[in-house]
Hints:
Strand order of the largest sheet: 1-2-5
Structural class: mainly alpha
Radius of gyration: 17 Å
Number of helices: 7
Amino acid sequence: MRLLTSAHAVRSIPEDKLAAVAKEIGVDVDLLAEVRAQAKIRKVSGKHAVAKFVTTGRYHDLELVFPDVHWGLWIKECKTRNVEPATLLRSLIHDLLLKGRLLRPEELHARWDWNGVRHSLPKAGKNYWKNRQVVGITPGAHRALIHHARAHNCSVTTLVRTLIMETLKGRHRSVRLVQRKHLYDDELRYLQTARPGALDPQRGAR
């Protein structure tokens, strides 16, 4: 489903019904909320809103919008590590795909929570994109990431959010930093490093 151009992106849905609609169509509730906000921006500005993945040459730009609290923590973490945010996120994705690490369902972060409080994305408007993280990855890494998300029965957004949340909680201190050119172009190079069946969408997360 092309969510951004679907009726779900623009039709009227009460806030308290959003989670139910997201479950009905099989998408993450935060992803649905984000796409609806993008649709509003596109309607107001007349410009094409940026999708989750945008092809630029031989790379895909993965974009993620943070709530204010998490954005501040993320930028602080990157400054502490003396690394560019895009480089750190790219390295986390590369490391996950190389190791084929499996996460239990309770380890996945389907929402932006912090200290037991759920935080919302910025409201649609000129400030919506202020907390936007963009990272370029190869098409092969993009496809492997989709496989990995399917194996966990979650969205790519949830998987990437989980890596960020783990990092904010002090994990991945020794992750090897990589640039775009170090990512594999062939997803099979990632998939072959995983445990048997780890990235098989038919088996799901274990």
